[in-house]
Amino acid sequence: MGTLLQIAARGPDQLAVEAAMEAALNAVDRVDRLMSFHRADSELTRGIKHLARILATEAVKNSNLCCNNEFVGMRDPRAIDHSFC
Fold this sequence. Notes:
Blueprint (H helix, E strand, L loop, with lengths): L13 H22 L7 H21 L2 E2 L2 E2 L14
Antiparallel strand pairs: 1-2
């Protein structure tokens, strides 16, 4: 997650303390898998990449402006995908 973590547990039952520590570490690992910017496979990173693809697609649609199959934008008209027109 790109951060330091310190977990402490105490109690009279050593097995319960160890189980609590294991549960805490598992919870941190789950949050890391879901929300880490540093992991390419995290849910957050995958969501951001998906949104970026959508936004890039919309940007391309909006930048390839054409009217009656004539180029109006700043790109080479031969490169335009006229299916957006």
